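Sequence and structure are no longer studied apart. As an example, we show below a sequence and the tokens encoding its fold:
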Amino acid sequence: MPYKEREINKMYYTMGEVTEMFGVNASQIRFYEKEFDVLQPKKNKKGNRLFTPEDIENLKIIFHLVDDKGFTLKGAKEHLKTNSGEVKENQKIIASLEKLKDFLLKLNEGI
């Protein structure tokens, strides 16, 4: 059986990695951290923020609501509080569809 690369799942992401993922400044991530209670990154002894995969998922939800759906920050906060389960489920569906899209695009390039 041939060796298959597995996806590496990190326990913590640095601020630099997070800003690169989302294509934003660190100040925007820090601002969202203050505004949204669901974001609770850990801090090491130096004070550097360490984001868990759950924090990354919450950031994806926040960016989707604010940037894609056009919610205000206040509206996004209220929507997260009232529809937390539904929003997280929708984000999982979006992530799986994006993975499928990437796979199909790679498959199309290979043909």
